[in-house]
């Protein structure tokens, strides 16, 4: 549940520093809000992308990309 912990740290960071939804904290900035003061590492060797506050943190191994629905009719 590292991503959940990162998300909680992002919320605390945003509150504490009065950041908006489009701001992205660094690993160092989040570390102080995380257990052990350390930014977590993926157990499968993935890379975390922190993303802005309104976008959930992703893992290069565990986060599934959203695949577009094939055959759907698009108006645009
Ligand atoms: Zn992972």
Summary of the model, kept short:
This protein is mainly alpha-helical.
Key words describing this protein structure:
76 residues, mainly alpha, flat, binds zinc ion
Strand portion: 5-15%
Q: Count all strands and give the number.
A: 2
**Rg (C-alpha, Å):** 15 Å
Bound molecules: zinc ion
Topology order in helix (H) and strand (E) letters: HHEE
Task: Explain what this protein looks like in three dimensions.
The protein has one domain. The protein is mainly α. It is built from 2 helices and 2 strands. It binds zinc ion.
What order do the helices and strands come in, and which of them pair?
Elements: H1 2-17, H2 27-31, E1 48-49, E2 58-59
Antiparallel strand pairs: 1-2
This protein binds zinc ion.
